[in-house]
Amino acid sequence: MVMVIHKVGSILSHLDKRTKGENKMYKKIVVLLLLVGVSFAQEKIGVVFTERIRLVFEGYSEAGKQLQLEGQIIQKEYQTMVTEYDSMMKDYEQQSLIWSPELKKAKEQDLIDTENSIRGYQQAKFGPDGTLTKRQQQLEFELGNQVKAAVDKVAISKGYDLIIDGSMAVLYTKPTLNLTDDILHELRNPPTAIKE
Q1: pLDDT tens across 145-196, in order?
Q2: 72-111: buried (b, 16+ CB within 10 Å) or exposed (e) per residue?
Q3: I need a surface site. Which of 77, 144, 154, 192 has the fewest CB within 10 A?
Q4: Is pTM beyond 0.70 here?
């Protein structure tokens, strides 16, 4: 630490000679950068690649399968409604000429109601606030909590001060800083509950 402070002083005096005290902004930037560097130099930092966890951890693929199954069930119900509507429409087209005006109007209203019902069902299940969207958000939230708990456990047990997500902007990481395998191990082997 003393060596770092000495180095900062050396750089600042060099800047004073170079800028002759005219530009204090350079001094402030250098001090800030050096202090940030010193503070990170004392921290134990790890990196986790969450994209790899999403690709490799079985919990994500199981959630995807579960979501797909729920989507197929909803799609079948939707298809049944559409088939019923098509049958009603075909019946209307074939029989409307022989119906009384009252019956024809009632059948037209049935078609409109059924079409609205189909649209409402589609919105309620597949829309932005639909059942399937909410279920997907719930599964992602639960998995995110599992990953966060695993990261916290590894960070605490290995004495890390900071763990960053390398999936977004890291171009290179020293292999010893990569904790992704540790997190995957923790996710696959959660602690067992103590039986009383």
Answers
A1: 999 999 999 999 999 999 999 887 777 878 888 899 999 999 998 776 554 4
A2: eebeeeeeebeeebeeeeeeeeeeeeeeeeeeeeebeeee
A3: 192
A4: no
Structure tokens at 107: 């059948």
Q: 127: left (phi > 0), else alpha (psi -120 to 50), else beta?
A: beta
CA dist 154 and 47 (Å) reads: 11
Q: Where are the alpha helices (H) located in 58-188, listed in sequence order?
A: 58-95, 101-126, 131-158, 180-188
CB atoms within 10 A of CB 33: 12
**Tens-place pLDDT, residues 25-84:** 555 554 445 555 545 557 888 999 999 999 999 999 999 999 999 999 999 999 999 999
Tokens of 100: 């009384």
Distances (CA, A) of 138 to 28, 36, 63, 107: 47, 38, 10, 41
Q: Which of 184, 177, 181 is nearest to 44 (CA)?
A: 177
